[in-house]
Amino acid sequence: MAEPEMMPEPAGGTRDDRVVPFQIEGAHVRGRLVRMGPAIDRALSGHGYPAPVSRLLGEALLVATLIGSGLKLRNRFTVQAQGQGAVSLLVADYRAGGEVRGYAGFDADAVAAAGPDADPFALLGGGFLAMTIDQGPDTEPYQGIVPIEGGSLAAAATRYFDQSEQIVTSMRLAVAEAFDRRTAEGAHWRGGGIMLQRLGKGGEEAKKALDTEEAAEDWARAGILLSSVEDVEMIDPDLTPATLLYRLFHEDGVRVFEESGVAFGCTCSAEKVANVLRLHGQEDLKDMVEEGEIRATCQFCSALYRFDPADFLDDREAGA
Ligand SMILES: [Zn+2]
């Protein structure tokens, strides 16, 4: 079967680290597909977390990218999970322009006890998922908070739309360590996700159009097709986003819009870390001195910053 001309594929380039918006023709269904290779590998592998924690953080990064890339974002969109189980914290940032980063907080003993094949979502053990739109200085952040429930991070995340915008949303995510046959290197993290939303073109007319039986059938069919996607298809480096979308939605036809890039990136700097250190009292700072210096590691990218204690401690105490 011939493939439709939907999207020029970059010649010899990577198909990874892209967000592809699309629309199912005539079905009032829009969506976005994200495919991450080096971006998610850099964001995850630097931490050296146990595999189930990496998978969970990877899913949070995909959620942040799927939602953040669809916003008129000027600064940052953050997905933060506060878990009640072995994993107590996930933070995933998506910055305007497509940079992602994240970190996790967890009880190492409890994660180890659950084993390497533990269901990552179960490690959260409930709690809350906060999604925050930060448009930069002199603006109030907008935050939506939903319970961590529904059997997957994807299901929990879609409730954000039910609650904040009343847009019916469906999401699939896949994160795995995979070998790349072409480079014959070791395993790298890969991630893929697809989000579908039931949308009109805007306004009351569009809302009415969604009330028809046909529109309901369109949405149900799109959901069935989405649930038919195999995890491996979402992360397969040899299966382009365009081919995957065509495979899924070719009966209705799928239109692909301009894609955007995504990359790992951190905004930390010595100056920012120093400013955080200055919030500590003199006693705390003195306790932090190790081998004649104060060291601080960025939680997101693991960069190590080293400072001269004399820059932080009062003069009369620094020489003590
Ligand atoms: Zn950093």
TrEMBL record:
GO CC terms, sorted: cytoplasm
UniProt keyword annotations, A-Z: Chaperone, Cytoplasm, Disulfide bond, Redox-active center, Zinc
Source organism superkingdom: Bacteria
Molecular-function annotations in GO: protein folding chaperone; unfolded protein binding
InterPro entries in UniProt: Heat_shock_Hsp33 (IPR000397), Heat_shock_Hsp33_C (IPR016154), Heat_shock_Hsp33_N (IPR016153), Hsp33_helix_hairpin_bin_dom_sf (IPR023212)
CDD domains noted in UniProt: Hsp33
Xref: Gene3D superfamilies: helix hairpin bin, Hsp33 domain, HSP33 redox switch-like
Pfam families linked: HSP33
Listed GO biological process terms: protein refolding
Entry-linked NCBIfam families: PRK01402.1 (NF002386)
Record protein name field: Hsp33 family molecular chaperone
